[in-house]
Amino acid sequence: MTYQIELENINKYYGGYHALRDISLGIEPGEFVALVGPSGCGKSTLLRTIAGLEGISGGTLRIAGETVNDRAPRERDLAMVFQSYALYPHMTVRRNLTYSMRLKRRSKADMERSVEEIARITGLESLLDRYPRELSGGQRQRVAMGRAIIREPKAFLFDEPLSNLDAALRVHMRSEVRQLHNRLNATSVYVTHDQIEAMTMADRVVVMRAGVVEQMGAPLDLYDRPCNRFVAGFIGSPAMNFVDGIIREDGVSVRLDLPGEAVLRFAGARPAGETVTVGFRPEHLSVTMAATGGNILSLPVGFVERTGSTSYVLSSTTPEILLSVPERFPKEQGSVNAQIAPELVHLFSKEDGTALL
Amino acid sequence: MRGNDVKRYGLLALALLFVGIYLFPLYWMYVTALKSNSEIFAIPPTFWPRDPQWIVMDVWQRMKMDVYLRNSLIIAFGVTVIVTMTGTGCAYVLARIRNRWMDAVLFTVLMMQVLPSSLMITPIFVVFNQVGLSEYPRLSVILAQAAKVLPLYIVLCRATFLQVPKELEEAARVDGNSRVGAFLTIIVPLARNGILVTSVLIFLQSFGEYVYSRSLITQRALQPATVGLQSFMGPNSSDWAGVMTYSAIYVTPILIVFVLLQRQIVSGLTSGALK
């Protein structure tokens, strides 16, 4: 199996600052990989390293089987879409699209044909002779995409390309980018801080923090089986609830550090007396009438947010527990009983946050 | 509302007053150029010549101003070419690479700007003499003056380059261009305004250069107009009308250029050369 892009123990230092730590990652041809993480986690640095805009301090980077550590960006045959689009302001859309072809001294007819095709794909036909400043945000975004597509590169690199668009357009472009990826059968690396974008678009999500890959895998695997507390909290919206707890004598249930001595059963077994962090997602807590029984939390209601389709109920405990209720929750209700299935309860080590189940 | 009006007109009056003070010497130059010798020393002074006399052609021919102005142009043009050729790349590097060493370099560059010509001229004269540059006096003035104004050019151009987003260059490099190619096809065209305006400033400054020309050029036929002006000053000459006419001929083209370009110069110096 040859990877389209292969990273092997990539390290990157800025002076004494260790920006990327031992990153290994193989991206298969045609795969859509999203790099996601909080700002400053190194995801953009990693992308720029692949593009060749940043040097590598250690490790090997291969593109289509060839080591490219010391190659200039232009020798790597990758296309990049920037957050700011980076359209050349002094060139028309047409000249922006053909910039790379003109560098390669392709024939005029050749360029005309390509421009027409790209304009058709991206819907820019009527805008070819405009300047970037005369375009709306969405149109600029399309030009930036078109400029990448026209290259027919070995892989596409996206650096938060949708974050400058308004919310509605962002959702629309999300599916459009993904469809484009499918149609071109391209290999794409997509950097974003928005986990929804990563979850909806990518075949594989790489969660990064502080220059380290925390976990990588299919979007739903990350959601179902986060390997540590950070990934658990980062993937999923609203974020997972975390409560401290102690494993009970039976080894299959945990006493939560909440008023009322709440006890939750979990799927699996842990040594009795172990102190852990218990995690469960707001949407996995379902409101129930029963006050007693299996895996029920009785919580005093502190605050209710209603969005129409979903109500967010925040408990008045410390730490606060958030429930995501798919119905209209009465604002004046003082307490709520929430039930959760044992297999949806996550346990994390108190020391290093790794998943225990 | 009324208070606002008072404030506005008050400020306007103040502005006019200051403009008047700044422009008075210029006005006095033009007026004196038109006065007769006796009227120049009349007390009280006249603010408009009673009997205007037009001695432009006379001064032009008597002083051989065409030679002087040609020398001034050669020097100013030479300085501008050398400075733009060598300074643009330097300004760009200083704009892009940011670390402690570059700060030190920038500081050193600025320090060179501080040294006055009159201080620098002696060592320059000695060195130029030793390497035989005194055979080419205009070239030596061009070199000396280029060294003098280069820091100013670098600092002003750097400010322009700082406004060009880095991503544009990176996009060009990923798109298949080299660093130099990206600089020439993307960055320089975008910074064109700033570069042009700064070059005009350098040109005008070199057009009025005096100290180096005075010291390095002895032959009259090679001297620029600034030095030529001095030849009016004899032990017993007091041709003030001639001096002022000469000055007016010399300054007027500069003024015209400035007025024509003032909007670009101001915007180029402050900000917004892009977007």
Automatic annotation (TrEMBL), chain A:
Q: Does the keyword Acetylation apply?
A: no
Q: Which GO terms describe its molecular function?
A: ABC-type transporter activity; ATP binding; ATP hydrolysis activity
Keyword NADP set for record: no
Tell me which residues make up the ABC transporter domain: 5-235
User: SUPFAM superfamilies from the xrefs?
Assistant: MOP-like, P-loop containing nucleoside triphosphate hydrolases
- Signal sequence annotation: none
Sorted UniProt keywords? ATP-binding, Nucleotide-binding, Transport
The domain of life for this entry's organism is Bacteria
List the PROSITE patterns hit by this protein, alphabetically. ABC_TRANSPORTER_1 (PS00211), ABC_TRANSPORTER_2 (PS50893)
Task: Kindly give the Pfam families that the UniProt entry links to this protein.
Answer: ABC_tran, OB_MalK
The Swiss-Prot or TrEMBL record describes its family as follows: Belongs to the ABC transporter superfamily.
Under NCBIfam families, the record lists: PRK11650.1 (NF008653)
Q: What is this protein called?
A: sn-glycerol-3-phosphate ABC transporter ATP-binding protein UgpC
TrEMBL record, chain B:
Q: Give an example GO cellular component term for this record.
A: plasma membrane
What family does the entry list?
Belongs to the binding-protein-dependent transport system permease family.
Q: Topology in the membrane?
A: Multi-pass membrane protein
Q: Fetch the InterPro entries from UniProt.
A: BP-dep_ABC_trans_perm (IPR050901), MetI-like (IPR000515), MetI-like_sf (IPR035906)
Location(s), subcellular: Cell membrane
Q: Where are the transmembrane segments?
A: 9-30, 73-94, 106-128, 140-161, 182-204, 240-261
Source organism phylogeny: Bacteria, Pseudomonadati, Pseudomonadota, Alphaproteobacteria, Rhodobacterales
Tell me the ranges covered by the ABC transmembrane type-1 domain, including all copies: 69-261
Q: What are the protein's UniProt keywords?
A: Cell membrane, Membrane, Transmembrane, Transmembrane helix, Transport
**GO biological process: any one?**
transmembrane transport
* SUPFAM superfamilies with a match to the protein in the record: MetI-like
> From the record, what ranges are coiled-coil?
none
Q: What name does UniProt use for this protein?
A: Carbohydrate ABC transporter permease
